[in-house]
Amino acid sequence: MKTKDLFFFMESLIRVQRSEQRFGTAHVYQSTLNRIRKYERSNKMPFSKLTREWIKGFEIQLRFEQLKENSISTYLRMLKAVYNQGVDRGLVEYAPRLFKHVYTGVDAKRDRSLEPEALQKLISPTRYLNTRLETTRSIFLLLLMLQGMPFVDLAHLRKCDLKDGVIVYRRHKTGMELSVTVDPKAMAIIEKYQHKNPDSPYLFPFVTTSRREGYRQYQNALREFNQSLSFLGKLLGLNTGLSSYKARHTWASLANFLGFDKKLISECMGHSSLKMTETYFKAQGNSRIKKVNQGVINYLIAS
Fold this sequence. Notes:
The protein has helices at residues 6-19, 23-40, 52-64, 69-88, 116-123, 131-145, 151-155, 184-193, 211-235, 244-257, 262-268, 275-283, 287-302; strands at residues 162-163, 166-170, 177-181. It is mainly α. It folds into two domains: 6-88; 116-302, hpI Integrase, Chain A (Orthogonal Bundle), CATH 1.10.443. Strands 1-2-3 form a three-stranded antiparallel sheet. Helix 1 (6-19) runs antiparallel to helix 2, helix 6 packs across helix 10 (244-257) and helix 11 (262-268) packs across helix 12 (275-283). It is globular. 29% of the residues are buried.
């Protein structure tokens, strides 16, 4: 008999994520489960209790605890994903519009991309940068030149992913395969900062192993990178905070500013939406994707 306990089911999903080495996703699921347990004040919760009223009460509690809108949305989206999987496995009956009246969007009020003036300060800094900050600046620009690649994907790139000036890899988050033609300026950065250990399978020295230890190394590298970016932004007098993900938003904004089709931009970034459109553009070949990324790089070089 299938268990219909929400907590038990979430724990099983977390175990699966960890077994597949998707530790980031497992962490978000675990955080969501912890929040629900705190709200429910119990070690068990039947799926049947997951009503529109319960979900709204959970959202209200998260706001009472003064969580940010995006954090609230993350917990609710994770809960919705668990519910949908429960429906698929026959653990709970489908209820239309169950999550309709709670916030599951993304707060877009704050601009996450860099303004041209701030970008110019990064490309041509007027202040002396020590070795650490110069490395940080270079890696940030590399993320920009690799189609807004997320830091998690850069950190886990393998040497075999780079061949004949092209990086072919699978996104850490979605598993989608992407191809990036590496511009000579981007290649120069790669060659300067790539892993010097010939026995390491990784292109960069951010992680040295896989599984949980590898995930811990990635988290430490991301934290140090963002801390260094924050200091770099203040040193250069940027009027906005600097973080690893800002490279991704900036790439998308630049590509949009340059007039490239939004659906093609989505494919370049490996988004899982617009699946039919992605299939259509893939049928056109990778030359158009290369043109989009080269257009962004040309803009960066000319700035």
